[in-house]
Amino acid sequence: MPKFLRIGVHQSNVSGYTSKAWCIRRVGSTILLKWGAVEVHGAGDGRKVYWTLPPREKTIRCRTVERANDYAKAAIARRRNHRYEPLTGNIANRRRAADRRAELKQALATILFVDIVRSTEKAARLGDTRWTQVMNHYYAAVRRELKALRGKEIVTTGDGLLATFGAPAAGVRCATAIRDAVRTLGLEIRVGLHAGEYSVSGTEVIGLAIHIGARVAAKARAGEVLVSSTVKDLMAESGIRFKDRGAHQLKGVPERWRLYRVEH
């Protein structure tokens, strides 16, 4: 299975950073894709790569082996041209000791997901040197707003970020501040927020609330800050206005969820 590791400019250290991995496998006329956030430890031959969250998977049926081969070749070529490097060896799941559950701590927070819209296209248009500069400024702006509103950065995924907040209003205000700040760099982001309980073990976060937050962000359009109904209900007295974006089926999440756009 060909595997690729996303190279991000914020990953100046050689070990202990987070990134994104992408894998492809062909079985007859079927293409199996897998991608998600990873944590990288070590360098060179001693480098170890672990999934930080369960990877997303997708199956594509191409009807013929020839079409499947063409799809795989084109997909691999795109990754090689878009800031990915070939990755040798396996991407491991972290082993859990039998008593690991005892180490899990429950947390309740507002969960924020940020993602740059059409980042691959922008990187290709600007070139590596300029894109590196833009991404440095991007992460500096994001972290500045997180610090101002007491957000906690959990993990970065190439050009995305997961953070948590003790109060939903702080998360929403941070989201709009990040959106406005990165527009000066010529970037548009999509943001999703959800509030709920999840488990923490070391640097890992686990739970349905995390997945709901990611799915809410995936529904956002360029420049939109979307929140789940849970977040909206918690902010009834905040003075922040919302516009109903209807009920949505979130991939892998039970039932339909009503989403709301943050309005200025």
UniProtKB/TrEMBL annotation:
InterPro entries (UniProt xref): A/G_cyclase, Adenylyl/Guanylyl_Cyclase_3/4, Nucleotide_cyclase
SUPFAM superfamilies: Nucleotide cyclase
Residue ranges annotated for the Guanylate cyclase domain, each copy included: 110-217
Parts of the chain that traverse the membrane: none
Gene Ontology biological-process annotations: cyclic nucleotide biosynthetic process; intracellular signal transduction
Top-rank lineage group of the source organism: Bacteria
MF terms in GO: adenylate cyclase activity
PANTHER family to which the protein is assigned, alphabetical: ADENYLATE CYCLASE, TERMINAL-DIFFERENTIATION SPECIFIC (PTHR43081:SF1), ADENYLATE CYCLASE, TERMINAL-DIFFERENTIATION SPECIFIC-RELATED (PTHR43081)
Protein name: Adenylate cyclase
Organism: Bradyrhizobium macuxiense
